[in-house]
Amino acid sequence: MKFLWVSLVAVSFLVPNASDAAGKKIQTLKGFKSAVVNRTLANNDGSLRIRSNGRVTGTLQGKKLTGAWNWQGKRFCRALKWGGQDMGSTCQTVVINGKNISFVRPNGRATSYVIK
């Protein structure tokens, strides 16, 4: 067990923090709307749309994704249901690099998409 813990700690130093990813943080609602809203975001798990009416829709891993979003301060906030399961709500930092966009959770983990 001690070996496993030491291994996990060692690996954690090898994996870069998502918040250190290259790109520019989107810090305004206007910037977010311009770059993301009403466009398809896709990755290997599926695709979604963050809509101008405050809704989120899509399909990820073959399951329906629905929810609501808003902008608070300098972060994207969302509450989602995925496959009928409540995924809760969180506010995330948004980092964009060309057509690539990452949503960085408070714990530093990110989910990335390509903007179509």
What does this entry look like structurally?
By secondary structure, this protein is α+β, with helices and mostly antiparallel strands. It contains 2 helices and 9 strands. The chain has helices at residues 2-14, 29-35; strands at residues 24-26, 40-43, 46-50, 55-60, 63-72, 75-82, 85-97, 100-104, 110-115. Strands 2-3-4-5-6-7-8-9 form an 8-stranded antiparallel beta barrel. A hairpin with a 2-residue loop joins strand 7 (85-97) and strand 8 (100-104).
List keywords for this structure.
116 residues, alpha+beta, eight-stranded antiparallel barrel, 2 helices, 52% strand, globular, disordered N terminus
Write the layout of secondary structure elements.
Blueprint: H1 2-14, E1 24-26, H2 29-35, E2 40-43, E3 46-50, E4 55-60, E5 63-72, E6 75-82, E7 85-97, E8 100-104, E9 110-115
Antiparallel strand pairs: 1-7, 2-3, 2-9, 3-4, 4-5, 5-6, 6-7, 7-8, 8-9
Biggest β-sheet: count, sense, barrel? 8 strands, antiparallel, barrel
Name the shape in a single word.
Answer: globular
Structural class: alpha+beta
Number of strands: 9
Mean pLDDT: 85
Report how far apart the termini are: 45 Å
Outline of the structure:
With 116 residues, the protein is α+β, with helices and mostly antiparallel strands. The chain has two helices and nine strands, in the order H-E-H-E-E-E-E-E-E-E-E.
